[in-house]
Design brief:
With about 70 residues, the protein is α+β, with helices and mostly antiparallel strands. The protein has three helices and four strands. It has a four-stranded mixed sheet with strand order 2-1-3-4, covered by helices on one side. The chain is globular, with a radius of gyration of 11 Å.
Length: about 70
């Protein structure tokens, strides 16, 4: 199961809910990736910074073997 950390200022509740299908999601006020966050949604998955919700879903799915948690 992936550990997914996201900034609640850039990743909306619906996206966090979708990502929760693939692992444990922790929303935080800041992940200290402000420059990236300003340009669009980003999350940290198992320590790796990823951007764009659709790309995030694909990356998380690949990291978990494509199976929801």
């Amino acid at each position: 199961m992936a550990t997914i950390e996201c900034c609640v200022n850039s990743v909306d509740a619906a996206s966090r809910s979708r990502l929760a299908e693939y692992g444990s999601v922790r929303g935080d006020r800041c992940l200290e990736h402000c420059e990236t966050c300003r340009h669009g949604p980003c999350v940290v998955v198992d320590g790796d910074l990823l951007t764009g919700i659709e790309a995030l879903e694909m990356a998380v799915a690949a990291a978990t073997g494509g199976d929801p948690a």
